[in-house]
Amino acid sequence: MDLHSLPRFPLATLPTPLDELPRLSQTLGARVLMKRDDLTGFALGGNKARKLEFLIADALTQNADIVVTGGGVQSNHIRMTAAAARKAGLGAVGVFFSSPDGEINGNLLLDKILGARLIYAHADKNETERAIEQACDDLRAQGRRPYLIPVGGSTARGCVAYMLAVQELQTQLRAQNIQPDAIVVTTGSCGTHAGILAGARFFGMSTPVHGITVSRPADECRARIARLLDETAQFIEHALPCADADIIVHDAYIGEAYAKITPQARSAIYETAQLEGIFLDPVYTAKTMAGLFDLIQRGTLRRNATIVFWHTGGAPGLFGYPRDVLGK
Fold it and tell me: Among 5, 25, 75, 206, which one carries the catalytic annotation?
C-alpha cells in the first residue's frame, strides 16, 4: 500500500519544526532536539491532529454523521476530535471515564465551546471503550450514524499517520546531517509510540524508540504496541518486523496515578519553560521530560548522546490543573 494514497482530511500544519534545545542540552549533558508536534496548529495543536486527518477521512467515507470517542476529563484527544468533527460538519460525543470535578477549564472548557455532547461514564479507565460502544449503540437506536474512534485514536490508521511523521522527521534529520541515538516519546494509549516504531521499521530507521508511559504498566504497553504493530502491518499489507526488545517502555515515572502530577514532572515544566520557552503539560509531556532527565542521569541514555524528544502537545492541560502545576 502507498501510505500517501490513504484518504486524508487536512487538519495539521506540516511539517512541524525540529528544534534544537541548546540550554536544556547544556543542563542535561546531552544534545536534545524537539519534534514540535505541539505546533500542529489545529485546535491548539498536539499529536492527535495527524491521526485525525486519517480517522475523520474514514468517517466521511463511511457516511458517518457523528464521531464518538473517549478519554479523561482533560483529554487532549477529545478536544481535538470534537474540533476535527466540527470542521468536517459532523457531530461529536466525548465519553469521560471519570466523574466531573466541578470546574470547567482547560480542555473541558474547549469541549463545551465546540458543543460536543459530553458523557460521564463513572467507570474506571479500562471500561471506557465499553462505554464508547454503548454510546454508539444508543446513537444508532436514534437513527444516527456514529463513527467510533478508540481512546487516543490508537488504530492502524492512527499509526499510519505517525509512520508518515517518521518520514518527515527523517527528511529533517538528513537536511541537518543529524544521526540521533534515541527518540523519546510519551506512551499513553500507545498509538503514537507504535506508529513511530512502525515508521522506523518501514523507512529503515534504526534509532531506538523509548516510551515513557504515563498511564499503564510497561508490560501492558508493550502488549498493546505489539498488537498495534500487527494490525498496522496487516492494514498496509507490509511486514513490520519488530523484536520484543525493540519495544522499549519505562514505567517508573507514572507517579501516584494517571493525571496526578509528580514533583519531577512539575520541575520539568518549569525547567523547560524557563530554559527554552516551551510549555509541557502536567499529564503527558512533563512526565516524559522528567523521564528523559532521569534516563540521562542514570546512564540509560548516555551523556553526549543526540536525543529527539517528541513533543505531543497538550498545553491546554496546564489550565486544567493549575493547583498541581503551582504545587498548591
Answer: 75
